[in-house]
């Protein structure tokens, strides 16, 4: 078993109502207290009749969702992928057999099993099968290069790597690099094939093929259940938009609670039809592989996210829910007319990952999608807040409705608290919609910590709150609104400029497809906004000065970009704009004299 997880345990003092995480090799080392100290208000530990046993105390785990679906909705469709279709009873049996096969390969409690795959059925099944074997699933970003995959395999100490056939060469190269750096045993390579797989695939380095491995498992496998609900269920590496990715540890308890919270904020009734446009490797698909099972829903798997495939699946399967970053929504609203199909039923599109431009929300709703906005981070299991829509807002003008929907809103039911604070004084900012502070979380759906990075864990849990690194404001009604990342704020002549506000104005220009704003060094002002703009088709002759003038007409002049660069906008595989890449480009331009 991985040494970190051997030495991780949670203690709780009922008398002081405290929960503290300890990691140690020989003796306990306290590094975070999640609650404020307070005087003993009396003890109930000896209350007569108080009794805990298996009848009223069972560790929370999302594995129960699959067992429940298989028991009560055995014949309902669980998953569709092209011509492939499974029922919940079949999915349960397949996951049990796969867990059994993992056990036969020597996987036991606390071991890490990695994946490198798009949203195919195997990725869905592995979210249950791996923890059923007592192991921890580590879903690697399917668009990483071999070098980074190698680094993450070494850091996670994964014992098995499940790889999709289209990513086989990346995996092989990663293992070659890993072999040169370490004498440790390399992960076992398991190939996930597909109906359209090339029959000429070189399988010489493959230990097992997914379906054959699964077939060798036992249907009656006894699930290795968590000893504690705080046992790790997954490791998610952050997207790396600002720095080297960190391994975020999710627990069974947090995954269970955030699955249910996400279902609620997504307004997912029983028997939803969910289209997988959010990568399952990203925050475990916002915890929805487990959440859809909780609602006896149908998963529509999608290998590639393209507008035509989205519209085809929405209409063919009567999809009720889908999700994605604002860039996915932007792709949909700017899709070719021949790729679209009329939508004659309600489809809820949930967006998050970065503040969505109000214009994109408005255009999505014109196409027939109802857009809701959520906010969170990998460290909060994905969704942490959502913009609760108030019925009285229906009477507002469309532009005002879209502006309100772009806010990040209020915490979901799984969180204890969210606040915007001055990170130095830890005082809450006023609810004036203007004063910026750092967004901070605490509650049961905040990560357990960063894998093998105690220093970084202590830093983000300072003062008993998780520090997000995002800057925001609180409105009079308590709703929060993200203004920027701490690293993305532009300080010009002593004034703070929100790159998000400048980007929102840029999206109003008819020629702008996508935009990102970062700081460029300026000899006089210190920094000034530099806009990177991707143009729509037919606007190739656009002049940068016209973009600058447009911004000056709609913003205070000091906020308008002084530099405009026309180019494609670099993004992570989850649709987040890679501003650190753009910052380097702006820096390379040199200071404005």
From TrEMBL:
The keyword Ligase applies. One of its GO terms (molecular function) is 2-methylbutanoate-CoA ligase activity. CDD domains: ttLC_FACS_AEE21_like. PROSITE patterns: AMP_BINDING (PS00455). It is found in: Cytoplasm, Cytosol. Residues 67-451 form the AMP-dependent synthetase/ligase domain. It holds the Pfam family AMP-binding. The keyword Nucleotide-binding applies. SUPFAM superfamilies: Acetyl-CoA synthetase-like. GO terms for cellular component: cytosol. Keywords: ATP-binding, Ligase, Nucleotide-binding. Residues 501-576 form the AMP-binding enzyme C-terminal domain. PANTHER family: ACYL-ACTIVATING ENZYME (PTHR43859), ISOVALERATE--COA LIGASE AAE2 (PTHR43859:SF5). Belongs to the ATP-dependent AMP-binding enzyme family. This is Isovalerate--CoA ligase AAE2 isoform X3. It comes from Arachis duranensis (Wild peanut).
């Amino acid at each position: 078993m991985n040494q970190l997880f051997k030495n991780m345990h949670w203690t709780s003092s009922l008398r002081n109502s405290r929960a503290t995480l300890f990691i140690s090799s020989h003796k306990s080392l306290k590094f975070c207290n999640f609650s404020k100290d307070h005087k003993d208000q009396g003890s109930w530990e000896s209350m007569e009749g108080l009794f805990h046993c298996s009848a009223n105390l069972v560790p929370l785990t999302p594995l129960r969702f699959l067992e429940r679906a298989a028991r009560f909705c055995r014949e309902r469709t669980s998953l569709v992928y092209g011509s492939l279709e499974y029922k919940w009873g079949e999915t349960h049996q397949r996951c049990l057999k796969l867990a059994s096969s993992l056990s036969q390969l020597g996987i036991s409690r606390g071991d890490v099993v990695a994946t490198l795959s798009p949203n195919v059925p195997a990725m869905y099944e592995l979210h249950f099968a791996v923890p059923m074997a007592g192991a921890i699933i580590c879903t690697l970003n399917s668009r990483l290069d071999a070098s980074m995959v190698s680094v993450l395999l070494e850091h996670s100490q994964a014992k098995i790597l499940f790889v999709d056939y289209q990513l086989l060469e990346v995996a092989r190269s990663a293992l070659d690099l890993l072999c040169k750096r370490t004498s440790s045993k390399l992960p076992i390579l398991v190939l996930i094939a597909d109906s359209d797989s090339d029959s000429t695939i070189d399988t010489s380095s493959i230990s097992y093929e997914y379906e054959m491995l699964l077939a060798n498992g036992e249907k009656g496998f006894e699930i290795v259940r968590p000893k504690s609900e705080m046992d790790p269920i997954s490791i998610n590496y952050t997207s790396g938009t600002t720095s080297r990715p960190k391994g975020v540890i999710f627990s069974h308890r947090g995954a269970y609670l955030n699955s249910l919270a996400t279902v609620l904020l997504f307004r997912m009734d029983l028997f939803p039809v969910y289209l997988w446009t959010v990568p399952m490797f990203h925050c475990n698909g916002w915890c929805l592989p487990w959440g859809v099972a909780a609602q006896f829903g149908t998963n529509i798997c999608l290998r590639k996210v393209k507008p035509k495939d989205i519209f085809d699946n929405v209409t063919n399967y009567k999809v009720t829910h889908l999700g994605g970053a604002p860039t996915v929504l932007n792709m949909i609203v700017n899709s070719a007319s021949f790729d679209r199909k009329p939508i004659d039923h309600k489809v809820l599109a949930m967006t998050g990952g970065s503040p969505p431009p109000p214009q994109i929300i408005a255009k999505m709703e014109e196409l027939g999608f109802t857009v809701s906005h959520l906010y969170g981070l990998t460290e909060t299991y994905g969704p942490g807040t959502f913009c609760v829509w108030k019925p009285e807002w229906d009477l507002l003008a469309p532009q005002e409705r879209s502006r309100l929907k772009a806010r990040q809103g209020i915490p979901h039911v799984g969180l204890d608290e969210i606040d915007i604070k001055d990170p130095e004084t830890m005082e809450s900012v006023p609810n004036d919609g203007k004063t910026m502070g750092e967004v901070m979380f605490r509650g049961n759906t905040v990560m357990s910590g960063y894998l093998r990075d105690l220093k970084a864990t202590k830093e983000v849990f300072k003062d008993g709150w998780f520090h997000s690194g995002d800057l925001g404001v609180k409105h009079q009604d308590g709703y929060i609104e993200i203004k920027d990342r701490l690293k993305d704020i532009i300080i010009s002549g002593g004034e703070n400029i929100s790159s998000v506000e400048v980007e929102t104005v840029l999206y109003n220009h008819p020629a702008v497809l996508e935009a990102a704003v970062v700081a460029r060094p300026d000899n006089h002002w210190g920094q000034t906004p530099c806009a990177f703009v991707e143009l729509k088709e037919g606007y190739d002759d656009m002049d940068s000065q016209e973009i600058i003038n447009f911004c000056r007409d709609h913003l205070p002049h000091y906020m308008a970009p002084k530099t405009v660069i026309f180019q494609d906008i670099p993004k992570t595989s989850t649709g987040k704009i890679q501003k650190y890449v753009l910052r380097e480009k702006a820096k390379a331009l040199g200071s404005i004299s």
